[in-house]
Amino acid sequence: MTSRLRLSAAHWPVIVPPLAALVLALTWGRSLSAGAVALVSCCLAGAVLSAVHHAEVIAHRVGEPFGSLVLAIAVTIIEVALIVTLMADGGEKSSTLARDTVFAAVMITCNGIVGLSLLVGALRRRVAVFNAEGTGAAFATVATLAGLSLALPTFTTSTPGPRFSTAQLVFAALAALLLYGLFVATQTIRHRDYFLPVTTAGEVIDGDDHAHPPSTRTALISLGLLAVALISVVGLAKGVSPAIESGVAAAGLPASVVGVVIALLVLLPETIAAVRAARRDRVQTSLNLGLGSAMASIGLTIPAVAVATIWLEGPLVLGLGATHMVLLALTVAVGTLTVIPGRATPLQGGVHLSLLAAYIVLALSP
Length: 366
Description:
Layout: H1 2-10, H2 12-27, H3 34-62, H4 66-90, H5 97-125, E1 128-129, H6 132-151, H7 166-190, H8 216-250, H9 257-279, H10 283-308, H11 322-339, E2 343-344, H12 346-364
Antiparallel strand pairs: 1-2
Pfam families: Na_Ca_ex (PF01699)
Keywords: Membrane, Transmembrane, Transmembrane helix
Domain Sodium/calcium exchanger membrane region: 35-188, 222-363
């Protein structure tokens, strides 16, 4: 029996996606009891973890920086699916859900993942070393996307409230998509070496020596299971969305906490992957994961939500409030000072983590 348990534990990423798909088929379109919600939530968490696992397998096969890109896109697809499914059932009360989730993802990635990676890398080698050219380009893109999509709507006057007009929303969506596509081309084609890990002496590490890459057959199997897991995540999230919203309301928490929950759910496995990379002295890979996810979160979510507004009811509020605007400005300023030297001590990691802590506290108690 012990050997069977070990075998099941080793093959859980293969078992979970079909199991989640089966649970989705059995619960689709039905009103769920408390026990069913707990079961669906477990399957949802397992599907998210298995999706990221298979994305990592594919990422290991294609190598850096393509690997970080695959993982970031997979995570963002999950995020977009959760946002759209919750907005479809939420009506006007979910008008700020996309803004809250995207901003939560930006704060978690740019301060949480980046800060934790720098802290782990610096504690291990005294100084965390990364490529300032690639990281600076990524952070500049994130800052521009966040400014255009989240800060600018607060100051426009064509539509009442912190909202874009239709023409402005189309521009923001196209700009986000084009900037993200331009960054991907820069990262994978023209300046790939800017996004590869570097040693403490500044030498580029082109390759990963901790394990042999999986075979093509294994990567293709993971690709299929990744698709099944993502479909399961979308469906299961739709099933438990009423429980998430009612739970937040029952606890007396602001509605924006729903966006924080979504971002934490989809980014936790990626955080683990970034910390693992930092422990292997691959801080650049960790930063690729964090900043790549922030960029994909804005660059793919905003266009997807803009298209979804064609059939979704209620307004789409994207503009940040004053408190979040201050946190975004601090994140951009601190992140710029962190990136410029190409080296970081534990202090920089602690500063970023303190900004994340401030965001979470203000989200729970605005």
